[in-house]
Amino acid sequence: MKSPICDLLGIEFPLIAFTHCRDVVVEVSKAGGMGVLGAAPMRLDEFKTSLDWIDDHIDGKPYGVDLIVPNAYVGKDDGATKAKRPEIDSSAQRQFVRDVLIAHDIDVSDITDERMQRKPRLAKNADAAGATDILDVAFSHPIKLIANALGVPPTYMLQRSKAEGVPVAALVGTKEHAIAQAKAGVDILVAAGGEAGGHCGEISTLVLIPEVYRAVKPYGDIPILAAGGIVTGSQMAACMAMGAAGAWTGSVWLTTSEAETLSVAKEKMLAAKSSDTIRSRCRTGKPSRQLKSAWTDAWEAEDAPKALPMPLQISVSEIAMDKVAKLAESGHEGAKKLTSYWVGQGVGMMNEITSSRQVMYDFMEDFIEASERLGGFTSE
């Protein structure tokens, strides 16, 4: 297919699949797109093992990795000293978490203050030292793309990627973000609308894509990947008509047969309407779209405490939601009600379990049909 994304990444169809599941990475890349492994929450050894497995099964097809290496957040170091946790009182949030769990018949004896004040793994990976270790592992494998999911990539990440000859992608939610990324020198812009699952802005994909396309024109031909609620080839075609060179997708892979999504969360997604998601700070401290549940309802209540800044909110929520997930899988009814997962508004069209390859083929077929419909409006 004639797209700068295909040329830059060496793929046949400009569809990128962001996923935490290595099997999905392999299947998408083998089907002509590119699988991108989300590594932000992984331990270093887990990350290396996953990449080793991908290398052994992907038959030389291109794949990428996605990290979260923000330039700034509460408690992040500057690369010179070890990060120090800021003096922010989280006692109200910690007690609130325990109260929510108790209200759903979940024992909280192990949900201690000490555990809820530990530095989360994501924050460790995002420190200069942790990020350097992650990059070392990533570049020891034949990756063809590295993405930073939060903010302008630090200079050392951009320099290292350029030296390794690996294109850098960065997520943006406004035209101002896009201009900043373009000035920093990223190779690909992932313009993610507010419909997207996970961290997202407020501007819709329909508005954001043409806005970003126009805004970065003065900075060269930087290819744009459209993201946010995209679960069909016709949506992809529409975004490419507005200036995108391909699509970055995440949610649509969560209900595939290969996905390691919790069965309870997968069932909720398959039954969900597009209105059954919410953009909330309750999981990470930054706005992220996720399935509505008793957990998100509790944090949206008038008497709920304000979410802490990232990564402090992760510290108080991560331990609780890990326990909720385990209990939900064992059939605990209260935990099932609390279960949530990051997913975009396109969830309303994710109604059945299919293979990752079938999702790829469906995208291609739908894309062609949509392109032909568009062509029909201008043909004589």
Question: Can you put this structure into words, describing what you see?
Answer:
With 380 residues, this protein is of the alpha/beta class. It has two domains: 1-83 and 120-256 and 355-380, Alpha-Beta Barrel (TIM Barrel), CATH 3.20.20; 90-118 and 259-352, no CATH class. It contains 15 helices and eleven strands. It has helices spanning 4-9, 22-30, 44-57, 91-103, 121-126, 128-139, 155-164, 175-184, 205-215, 233-241, 263-271, 294-300, 312-329, 333-338, 356-378; strands at 15-19, 34-38, 63-67, 145-148, 168-172, 188-192, 198-199, 224-227, 246-249, 277-280, 288-291. The strands form two sheets. The chain has an eight-stranded parallel barrel, surrounded by five helices. Strands 7-11-10 form a three-stranded antiparallel beta sheet, covered by helices on one side. Strand 8, helix 10 and strand 9 form a beta-alpha-beta unit. The longest helix is centred in the C-terminal third of the chain and has 23 residues, at 356-378.
